[in-house]
TrEMBL record:
Residues 13-59, 63-109 form the DUF1508 domain. This is DUF1508 domain-containing protein. PANTHER family: PTHR40606, UPF0339 PROTEIN YEGP. Residues 81-90 have a biased composition (Polar residues). Pfam families: DUF1508 (PF07411). It comes from Chitinophaga filiformis.
């Protein structure tokens, strides 16, 4: 089993930088928006590490039987989005995973 990690990568489609948080099982639990600058993407990872332990930073969402969450910074800006889950319970398990994994996850720079 791997340790939780952030993967920082550059999209060949739009040349923007992104990060994703992978849990110990290798599944992606959180993904970022695109960043123009690599340093801004690194700052986004730092913000996730700082905000993930705080339950109040997570916003649970539901749309047409799909359950998701977003992680917000103190200023209310979205810093990460989840995959879609089939139930509120599985979504909440995803949140718990991010809360536990993000603060100490390593960063793997794939650029």
């Amino acid at each position: 089993m791997e340790n939780p990690k952030f993967e920082l990568y550059k999209s060949s489609a739009n040349s923007q930088y992104y990060f994703r948080l992978k849990a110990v099982n290798g599944k992606i639990t959180l993904s970022s928006e695109g960043y123009i600058a690599k340093q801004s993407c690194k700052d986004g990872i730092a913000s996730v590490k700082q905000n993930a332990p705080d339950e109040q930073r997570f916003e649970r969402r539901q749309n047409n039987g799909s359950y998701t969450f977003v992680l917000k910074a103190r200023n209310g800006e979205i810093i990460g989005r989840s995959q879609s889950y089939t139930s509120p319970a599985s979504r909440d398990t995803g949140i718990d995973s991010v809360k536990e994994d993000a603060p100490n996850a390593t960063v793997d720079d794939l650029c």
